[in-house]
Specification:
Elements lengths: L2 H30 L1 H14 L3 H14 L4 H13 L3 H12 L5 H17 L3 H14 L3 H13 L3 H14 L4 H13 L3 H13 L5 H13 L3 H12 L11 H14 L1
């Protein structure tokens, strides 16, 4: 057999062998990352608003195993946003038993605190978030603790903290909203308006932003603009973690429109 024929046969079989090796590695990777792959698909469906579908994919990820600690936290958090309080509590509680490292403990505590808040255990929730904010401050914790302070009536503390949060990240919509709302609750409407205007420029997707700015405008005498802004709140995304209900906004609009 000539040299070139031998080389051609070797190349052909060599490609086949390499292909088989690559396929085997791909299968191993899929098996190893099976839980995370399902979790990734679940998050894609969540982003598309497919509630029933993303829950099934996370359920599959849980059964298959191999899901990362971060994805498990995401699963629990999304269940909480859906109003599945007890299921979220169960998932978070199970995570505390996995012997997480210090970084993971703080990450977990920052999200788990929201369960205690929704159960009315505000003091516990605040203490948990304060620990995280002290040890590993991040945008999410600044946002959560900031609104807990203001909604709990701790206005002086809320202002100090939310100003610090704003210095940390002045482009996060929740942080800007917290600061604007703090000024509103303190009766400083001009300052509140200033930050609400910046907030609207960030195109927030949560109703508190538009409802809060709407009330500021109404109280400053810009009633028509306030009504229009408040109506925008009704088209925003509501969840179990939303601080205001559609019914509250609708009732506010009815009361204001009667005065026009």
């Amino acid at each position: 057999m000539c040299f070139y024929c031998t080389l051609k046969i070797f190349k052909t079989f060599g490609v086949v062998v390499i292909f088989k090796i690559l396929m085997a590695l791909l299968v191993i990777l899929i098996i190893w990352q099976r839980g995370n792959l399902c979790a990734t698909i679940a998050k894609v469906f969540y982003a598309r608003g497919k509630s029933a579908v993303w829950k099934k994919w996370f359920s599959a990820a849980k059964k298959l195993g191999g899901m990362s600690f971060n994805n498990k936290i995401t699963h629990a958090y999304l269940m909480l946003k859906e109003g599945e309080l007890e299921e979220a509590n169960k998932l978070f509680a199970l995570l505390t038993m996995e012997q997480p490292d210090e970084r993971q403990k703080l990450l977990l505590k920052g999200s788990y605190a929201l369960v205690f808040w929704k159960r009315g255990e505000v003091k516990t929730a605040i203490e948990m978030l304060e620990e995280v904010a002290e040890s590993a401050p991040n945008t999410s914790v600044y946002g959560s603790l900031g609104y807990m302070y203001v909604y709990n009536g701790k206005l002086s503390k809320a202002l100090e903290f939310n100003l610090r949060a704003y210095e940390y990240n002045d482009s996060d919509a929740i942080i800007v909203d917290n600061l604007a709302y703090t000024y509103y609750k303190m009766g400083e409407l001009e300052k509140a308006k200033e930050y609400y205007e910046k907030l609207i420029g960030l195109a927030p997707t949560f109703p508190e932003a538009y409802y809060g700015f709407g009330r500021v405008l109404v109280e400053m005498g810009e009633v028509s603009k306030g009504i229009e802004m408040t109506k925008r709140a009704l088209g925003s995304s509501f969840s179990f973690l939303t601080m205001v209900s559609k019914e509250e906004i609708q009732n506010y609009l009815k009361d204001i429109e009667k005065t026009v």
